[in-house]
Amino acid sequence: MKRQENSKVMKGLSQREVEIIAWLEFYKKYFFSSKDIKHFFKGKNTLYKGIQKLLSKRRIIKLNQNKYYLIPIKAKSGSWSEHPFIIIDEICHSENYYINGWASANYWHLTEQIPSTYDVYTTNRQGTRIILNTRIIFHRVRKIEKSKIVTRKIKDHNFIIMDKKNSKKWLKSRE
User: Fold this and answer.
1) Pure H helices in the chain
2) In which region does residue 102 sit, left (phi positive, over 0), alpha (psi from -120 to 50) or beta (all else)?
3) What is the CATH number of domain 15-75?
4) Model's pTM, two decimal places?
5) Surface-to-core class of residue 6, CB atoms within 10 Å of its CB (0-12 exposed, 13-18 middle, 19+ buried)
6) pLDDT digit string (tens) for 51-71?
């Protein structure tokens, strides 16, 4: 009987890769940079080859130019999820962004509609990314009005979101 191949099945991990993942999990560094794991490698070339192998084996996900997300060993078949607000905050380095749209309205309990996409307004980037089955749309703005945003916490992690008053205004403009 031939075994059916599944693209979601994880490839085998080398001893070094297991050590890296175990070290990151032990120190709860689910969001990390290449600097955090460079001590496992002899040089830059081997470091980046190691990162590429972990990416190809779907054990880590690239969030931005120098930040990655670790899929924990306990994840079955390599699938895992993280709260979208935390992912967004990590992608944006905790600055120069805010979450708005349906995600903001849902957060403030202004609607029961669960967002299918997360609108992020930032001064740094634009475009759409899908990370851990979360569709994030980055809208570029010239300036972020600090008076219209607030910092909140979820799972001991801060994130920046449009305040309730302005989220109500946004929701009314949708009617």
Assistant:
1) 15-26, 34-37, 44-56, 84-91, 102-107, 164-173
2) alpha
3) 1.10.10
4) 0.80
5) exposed
6) 999 999 888 999 988 899 998
